[in-house]
Structures are given as C-alpha cells and as structure tokens.
Amino acid sequence: MTLLAIDWAGVGVKAGQFILSFSILVVLHELGHFIPARLFKCRVEKFYLFFNPWFSLWKKKVGETEYGIGWVPFGGFVKISGMIDESMDKEQMKQPPQPYEFRAKKAWQRLIIMLGGVIVNVVLAVIIFIGIKWVWGEEKLPMKNLSYGVYTDSIAKTIGFKDGDKLVSMDGKPIENFGRLEADIVFKEIKTVGVERDGQPVNITIPAGFSNKIKGRKLVTLFFARSLAVVDTVTKEAIFFSDTRLQKGDRVVAINNHPITYLDEFAPVRDKYIGTVADFKILRGSDTLHSKMLLNKRALVDKNAVSMGFASPYKLLGTVTTKYTLAEAIPRGWNSCWETLDNYVSGLGRLFKGKDKPSESLGSVISIGNTFPSEWDWERFWTLTGIFSIILAFMNVLPIPALDGGHALFTLYEMVTGRKPSDKFMEYAQMVGMVLLLGLMAYALGLDFWRIFTKG
Questions:
Q1: Residue 234 in contact with residue 246, Cβ under 8 Å?
Q2: How much is the pTM?
Q3: What is the mean pLDDT of residues 422-435?
C-alpha cells in the first residue's frame, strides 16, 4: 500500500462520521438501560461512552454516577449495582443484596432494564428512516432512463454480462429501480437476470455462491449506469496549451485520436497519456473542437488530479425524486427500517448455512468506518446510522451470555419457572459470553488488517 495514495483528509472525514454516529448509538443505547434503572431506583455506578481499560479519556462523578469516555471504540456500558456484567465485580456480589441493587428488583423490572437499550435502538432506527424519507425523499434512477445500458465490473463479466447490456428483469419480474440491483442479487438470491443485448433478449444465470465473490471484494458494485462523457467542472489548476479550453457541457469524444463514446471509456484512454499534453476532441453544441490539456503527473497517485470532472450519469440520465409529507414518510420509513433488518438477517442466514464465508463477510470497526463516505454527506450519514442502529438492536437481543439478550433470556426463564439462576451460574455465563465476543471481535479485527496488508 503506497502511503502517498492515502487520502488522509478523506480518512479523517470517515473517522469523524464513524465516531459521531457510534457515539449517538452507544449513548442512546446506554440511556435505554440507565433511565429505567433510575426509575426503578437502581444505583448506576458508571455511564461510559466506549470502554476504558486501565484509564479514561475523561470522567466526572455526578451524584452516585461516574460519567466518562473510554479510549476503546467498541461500544459503551452502564455499571448498575448488583448486576453481573462485563465489570465482573465479584466482591460486590458476595455481599447481601441491597434495596438499590439490580438483583434486588422484581424480574419484570430487571427485564425492562435489560431490554431498554434494544428498544431505544429500534425506536431510533425507525425515527431516522422516517426522517430521511421526510427530509430527502427517495431518489431513484428508473431503469427506463438507462438508454445506453450499463457498464459492468469484471466480476459481472465472468458470468456473462457485457458492457452495454440493458437490464430488464430479475427472475422474470421487471426491474424498476437501478439502485436496488446488487442488494436484490445478494439478499434475494436472484437466479436469472434478463437483459437486452443488441436488440435481442438474453437470460443470464446467476451461479450458486456468486454473492460470496461480491462480498469478498472491496468494490461490490456490479453495474454502473452508462452515460456520455460530458464535462461538468474544470478547475483553476487546469493547464491548457491551446486557445480552446474545456468548459462545462463539452462532450469528450476522443483523446489523441483514441475514440471515446461513453464515460467509462475515458479513464483507460486517459491513463495512457498521464504526464503529457493530450489533445481532447470535443463536441460543443454543433461544433467539433480540439483542446490541449496537461494530464498532471500527480494523477499517477490521484486519478482525480486531471483538473476536470464529468457530469454524473445520474445527473445526465435523470433521476426521479419522490418527496413525502411527514404522514407519508412514516410508513415509508417504517418499511425501509424493517427491510434493512430483513436483509441483514438474510445475510446472517447465508453465513450460518455456509453459503457465505466468514472470512469474506465479517469486519471490525475498520470495515464499519470505511462504509462512511470520504466527504461529509448528511443523508448518507443518517442512513448508515439508521442501519447500524437496527443492526445493533438485533445483535444485542440475541440470546448470548454477556449481551442484553442473554440477560433477558435468563430473566424470562426465572419468570416462567420461578427459579432464579444462581450468581455463580451467571458469572460463568458472563465469562463464556465475554470470551466468545472478544474472540469474534479479535478475529474480525485480524481479518481487516489482513485485507489491508494483502489487498492494499
């Protein structure tokens, strides 16, 4: 991996969005435990954003509770007196139960305290998705607008797709929204895709295990909307060696006599002439003109350093944005939230059925942080925050010791049978759960480092 190729500003923006997003999720999740604990008169000893082994970045005691920020960004915690949790405070558990302790409360109260964080994350996710639909609406690129078809990633070409294909159907059902293609192929396990190629219908079979190949790559986009190479911006740094300068609206049709019809054909031709003065043949209205521009040598590291930018296919082909009133946004956001969870659960199902490989599907905070864009985008930020909120709720409700769901399961067992699991049993269960979770986190983190150093 070449250090010069790292966009440190972009990395900083990604990190900033990740920290803000997870701070919101963790603080609200822990508040979901904190508030009912205080309502039921439990003593809360600590309330922390992130974990704090050995030391804290910041802490302050207010009343009976120490508030703080840890330095390990894997979550957060509230330490409730008389509860066997990640703090493993065995000495406290040896003492007789006190009225202010978690273990002294009724089972139904303890259940509410344990599930409070999950409930808050679910409510937060629903509110976020509703807010997104209300503020930004839904932007779609209708398939009928892709008049030039698509250009495809190399992995799509291996199963028969070609540049210029017009995607028509999936498993016989018409494709309406271009933006849903990859998600449907991966999560709905689409078997066939119908395309129009040179005016003729062609059916392409999606082979079993194809989604593994998609998930195992950094670039998971199979299809890109194809458009003409139309200039959108020319920066002040652009150096021209002709009276004719490129300007917004120009259509590039050749570089040094190498013809270019579509935007996806520009980069391969451009890369041949990096560091030279290249002749751009352009169409400006009804005129054919030539402009000579230096293709900056810095573009060997930063491929955007050619002092120009093209109009996005979405802009040229025309998207359709549907705006919603608050009343209309509520059901749309509700459905989007649960569709997100359904996709995630489907992905986990594929993992446990052996259809996906853990080494290709798992990721740590590095993978999560990398999902944020390198430029601050509030719509994308809140979309990812909503996604992670509903995923966090689902993961925490799983009946695994050390997670909220594990504690809730033992409490439900007590409510049904009338027998409370012993403190010793709870200690062992907590330890087993912590070992499993820490092992999984270490494995995921190791996978991310392996990907970084082996794939750059």
A1: yes
A2: 0.74
A3: 77
